[in-house]
Design a protein that fits this description.
13% strand, binds zinc ion, 13 helices, TIM Barrel, globular, 293 residues, single chain, alpha/beta
């Protein structure tokens, strides 16, 4: 009899332990940080979680790797290329006019692009967005919003490979695929091209020229792709600014990248430069070139 009672008590104890364990586990699951797990993304400011499909997550990766792993901070070789191909590759506008162009790479990104567009609208400033084809296809409404709000749009390849490693065949595929995607969404084919990671060589520049594109580099790197603070990003821009500057920033990146520093730095950068009488224009306006073909 005693044995049976003891057995029953042990069973009851086991059941209680199991219930506590399961409920604790649920608690842990509820408190997990989805941003740490592959198929979820944290949306800044809203505190909501986006649940991405596998395809959407694929779009949020950069084929050539995260900028922070692949990009050289100052590709000096591009200055030599610019001297050799002045009609194809531009790194800045005229030093004689107090105009600069803000440029944003790697979007559209549902987390950052709308926030950046809101700020540009607030100051009535036009900028230039170099879009990744696969992301434009995944975020058509943001792509159209960029166009509708008067910004210039450029081709930044379909999957963001490192073209210096991949070669001209791949360049041709990436550019034409993105061209088709953007034409379907926007109704025109942009004529500006920016190489992922700014990674170029003579063969690539010649091919870009043959395809009827202007290759656009930059003269001021905000280094925002290093995920810096707003203050650091602002200082990088303002301490290197010059008339005719093409300023490199990002409205998207590898899915793990936090670009809130970019968003938050924009108010100060715009206000400081406007105080100095600087006019913000698009890249085609800065270089006096056509932006559609
Ligand atoms: Zn890029």
């Amino acid at each position: 009899m005693k044995k049976t009672i003891l057995k029953s008590l042990f069973c009851l104890y086991s059941i209680i332990v199991c219930i506590i364990f399961v409920s604790c586990n649920n608690q842990i699951n509820q408190n997990r940080n989805p941003a740490q797990e592959t198929p979820y993304l944290n949306v800044p400011y809203t505190g909501q979680w986006i649940n991405l499909t596998e395809h959407q997550l694929e779009m949020m990766k950069l084929e050539g790797g995260a900028e922070i792993e692949t990009r050289k901070p100052n590709p000096i070789s591009n200055n030599r290329l610019q001297l050799k191909y002045p009609n194809i590759l531009a790194l800045r506008g005229s030093l004689k006019e107090n105009k600069v162009a803000l440029t944003f790479d790697d979007g559209p990104d549902p987390r950052y692009t709308p926030l950046i567009l809101d700020i540009l609208k607030q100051y009535d400033i036009k900028a230039t967005f170099f879009l990744i084809g696969a992301r434009a296809v995944g975020h058509e409404s943001i792509t159209k919003r960029i166009r509708d709000e008067g910004h210039a749009i450029g081709n930044h390849t379909y999957w963001h490979p490192n073209l210096d490693k991949e070669g001209v065949g791949r360049l041709h595929w990436e550019v034409t695929q993105t061209e088709k995607a953007l034409n379907d969404i926007l109704g025109y084919r942009p004529s500006l091209f920016r190489a992922p990671y700014g990674s170029l060589n003579e063969e690539l520049v010649e091919k870009i020229g043959e395809m009827g594109y202007s290759a656009i580099g930059w003269s001021v790197d905000s280094l925002d792709w290093m995920q810096l603070t707003p203050r650091q990003i602002k200082n990088n821009v303002l301490s290197n600014i010059h008339p005719g500057a093409i300023i490199l920033m990002h409205d998207g990146g590898h899915w793990t990248m936090d670009l809130l520093g970019t968003v938050q730095s924009l108010h100060d950068i715009i206000q400081e430069l406007q105080k100095d009488g600087v006019e913000f224009v698009t890249v085609p306006q800065l270089l006096n070139i056509r932006d559609r073909k």
